[in-house]
Specification:
Blueprint (H helix, E strand, L loop, with lengths): L2 H4 L2 H13 L6 H10 L10 H24 L4 E5 L6 H5 L6 E6 L1 H7 L9 E5 L6 H4 L6 E6 L8 H14 L2 E9 L1 H6 L20 H8 L2 E5 L5 H4 L4 H10 L3 H6 E8 L1
Parallel strand pairs: 1-2, 1-4, 2-3, 4-5
Antiparallel strand pairs: 5-7, 6-7
Length: 263
């Protein structure tokens, strides 16, 4: 896998750590895969603070997706940039739902060692900047799209084009994606856990409405990345430090979470 693909090990490690600690997120699959893969993380990417942050981010996405599936049980879920994530197992899905985990072919090849397709669950190896993968999906009117930890690797024009394609493909589209700010993207060249796996070039945005306009979407709202009920699962000094450093105004200056709709 290339360096960008290797960034999947950072959230995998975070989810495995919090799951093993019994806080924030239960993810036995992450624990299993992390133990089996034995990928070496160093420096900031192995920080417990980052692990807590990755666990909270995943939990927020999970909770949003559960709400979407409760409201729209007969939908297609597109998890773009799925990596080795076990969201399909953590969230589950109703009988009328079809779920597609999508990532680069090299990632999906690795993923198939741990996950098995069913009539409802499929894995797609594709570069989502191309049109072919989307045309190959079954005909359906409604889709829920999750993009966790991937938007910052897209050139802005690529991200706009992808969202335009998704918006044109479905009559009803709900999307949740996280992104760096432009300040964070610039700072990432010098100080970011992804540097530890060789990635130094990422992209950010500051105006969610501008992305919505460019892609023909409607911006719904910003979601908190580290909600209080998850921070409160930490104990004592760790909770106080995390709340001050990772959930304060500086953290929001770096990282945001946006919801869109379209179709």
């Amino acid at each position: 896998m290339n360096n960008v693909n290797k960034t999947l090990y950072i959230p995998l490690y975070g989810k495995a750590i919090v799951s093993k600690k019994g806080v924030i997120l239960s993810d036995p699959k992450a624990e299993q895969i992390w133990a089996a893969e034995g990928f070496a993380l160093n420096g900031k990417s192995a920080s417990k603070w980052l692990a807590y942050y990755m666990g909270m981010r995943a939990a927020v996405f999970d909770q949003w997706l559960v709400q979407q599936l409760q409201a729209n049980p007969e939908t297609v879920v597109l998890h773009i940039g799925c990596g080795m994530d076990s969201r399909i197992q953590r969230v589950g899905y109703p009988a009328g739902c079809r779920w597609f985990d999508i990532d680069f072919p090299a990632v999906i090849e690795e993923r198939r060692r741990y996950y098995t397709e069913t009539e409802q669950y499929h894995m797609v190896g594709a570069d989502v900047c191309t049109d072919g993968w989307l045309a190959a999906l079954p005909e359906t009117d409604r889709a829920v799209v999750v993009m966790e930890g991937v938007s910052m690797y897209f050139i802005p024009q690529q991200l706009q084009a992808l969202l335009q394609q998704l918006n044109g493909r479905f009559k009803q589209l709900n999307l949740l994606l996280d992104c760096y700010t432009t300040f964070a993207a610039k700072a990432s060249k010098y100080k970011n856990p992804i540097n530890d796996v060789g990635v130094t070039t990422v992209y950010g945005m500051d105006e969610p409405e501008a992305l919505a306009h460019a892609a023909g979407l409607a911006f719904i709202k910003e979601h908190p990345m580290t909600p209080t009920h998850l921070i409160d699962q930490l104990q004592g000094l760790e909770r106080a430090v995390f709340r001050k450093v990772f959930a304060g105004s500086f953290a929001r200056r770096m990282y945001r979470l946006y919801e869109y709709t379209g179709g």
